[in-house]
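@channel sequence for tomorrow's demo:
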Amino acid sequence: MEYTFTEGNFEKEVLNSDIPVMIDFFATWCMPCKMLSPTVAKLAEKYDGKIKIGKVDSDQEPGLARSFNVMSIPNIVFIKNGKVVDESVGLVPQQVLEAKIEKLIAQ
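structure tokens (generated this afternoon):
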């Protein structure tokens, strides 16, 4: 399941999540973001229940983007126990994100 994170649900869904979280910071006009979107959806389905995967529209939620120092998109942030533990910037292959997810859920 793929989530949509907003300032309204961020504390509950991300910071207080009992499982790790992967956030895809994106924008609707961003071509690399559009190219990464199917990968994020596949990962959300594959790792459902092990890691919470969702998106933040950087244009709609600029405060969240700023709070994570998102300077360019796509920007993937990995959070565990309310803290950033890893990050990936730009369009990356699915295997790179899977390796980061596997490492995160193994900890």
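heads up for whoever presents: Residues 2-106 form a domain with the Glutaredoxin fold (CATH 3.40.30.10).
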